[in-house]
Amino acid sequence: MADNNSFPGENNTGHVWDDNLRELTNPPPRWWMLAFWASVIWWVVYGVLYPMWPVGHESNKGLIGWTQMDEYIKGVDEVEAIRAEFETQIKGMSAAEILVAPGLSQYAVASAKVLYGDNCAPCHGGGGQGGPGYPVLADDDWLYGGTIENIQQTITMGRKGIMTAHGKILSDTEIDSLSKAIEAGDPMSDPNFTQKGCIACHGMDGKGMAVLGSANLTDGIYRFAPAEGESLLDSIKHTIKYGVNDATEPKSREAVMPKFGERLSADDIKKLAVYVHKFGGGQ
Ligand code: HEC
Ligand code: HEC
């Protein structure tokens, strides 16, 4: 082909297409060649220092002995060291102290997130929003008190508020009248409230007592929300008639907060108490 080069004297390779399209032998620019050789050297040096070449089923070890696994283990160790420091602090502190320790309370919240999701969210909802029969944890309306100690005790010991069924003790008219007074947010306006013994558990002011978990009947917040299609008045009547956790009454409302003292460590419970307190309703 070179013999009939139609562009003699030119630095072409002798390959010509379409009459005048030629392949020339110009060298690449200098900067390009420098970059090329630099990357070749880099590749060789890297291959000597780090594992790169296949050797049997593995690879060469590399002069500096780096492995991905070592790097991973080192990373995990670093995280563990930071965690261990926080965990030691938590062990020696009360939940109330953790709550006000800035870095530590953040750690407790982050670490309780999974615990809460696994153990509590099925009943109380992911954000403490509650559910039918399960109290809201994110507001400041508490059955058993909202201090960090109250919450810690609730989680450790569990809770089971008991209200006896009043269907056999009270007439329908009395239940009706009491329910209307409660719906209006003023149970004391009905003399039955005092005379029929409601005050024994719900208090002289109808606001409930934290030791018993007896609900506040004056705030318009209902721990037992009406079922679908049921009116609020009927739902209140149901509670009065059949009670709560009354074992002798099959239609009684059920409300049991399981105890976690045996299932979770004391430190995990402290973290959870901080987590729940920080939903915003803690007192
Ligand atoms: C099986 C369902 C269930 C699970 C699981 C559960 N709870 Fe409860 N929890 C309840 C019920 C029901 C009550 C109300 C008890 C009552 O009315 O006497 C309650 C009450 C509470 C209260 C008291 C609320 C108040 O107003 O005083 C707190 C705090 C609480 N739970 C936190 C938790 C935490 C934290 C977890 C997870 C470790 C958890 N609960 C897991 C059902 C549950
Ligand atoms: C033995 C104590 C006790 C007596 C007596 C009692 N209650 Fe209760 N009551 C409770 C407790 C405890 C709760 C909350 C139960 C729970 O949430 O686990 C409650 C809950 C209620 C609720 C539901 C409130 C809500 O937020 O959904 C109503 C309504 C109510 N009581 C009305 C009455 C009336 C009216 C009387 C008097 C006829 C009365 N109770 C007598 C202990 C009592």
**Into which percentage range does the β-strand content fall?**
under 5%
Q: Mean pLDDT, nearest integer? A: 93
Give the number of domains: 3
User: Poorly predicted ranges (pLDDT <50, ≥5 residues)?
Assistant: none
Task: Count the E strands.
Answer: 4
Number of helices: 11
List of distinct ligands in this structure: heme C
Helix content: 40-55%
- Estimate the global geometry from the Cα principal axes: elongated
**Biggest β-sheet: strands ordered side by side in the sheet:** 1-2
Instruction: Give the class from helix and strand content and strand pairing.
Output: mainly alpha
Q: Helix-strand pattern, N to C?
A: EEHEEHHHHHHHHHH
- How much is the radius of gyration in Å? 37 Å
3D structure, described in words:
The chain is mostly helical and 283 residues long. It folds into three domains: 2-59, no CATH class; 70-159 and 259-277, Cytochrome c-like domain (Cytochrome Bc1 Complex, Chain D, domain 2, Orthogonal Bundle); 172-242, no CATH class. It is 45% helix and 5% strand. It is built from eleven helices and four strands. A two-stranded antiparallel sheet has the order 1-2. Strands 3-4 form a two-stranded antiparallel ribbon. The chain is elongated. It is found in: Cell inner membrane. Keywords: Cell inner membrane, Cell membrane, Electron transport, Heme, Hydrogen ion transport, Ion transport, Iron, Membrane, Metal-binding, Oxidoreductase, Repeat, Respiratory chain, Transmembrane, Transmembrane helix, Transport. Heme c 1 binds at residues 120, 123-124, 257.
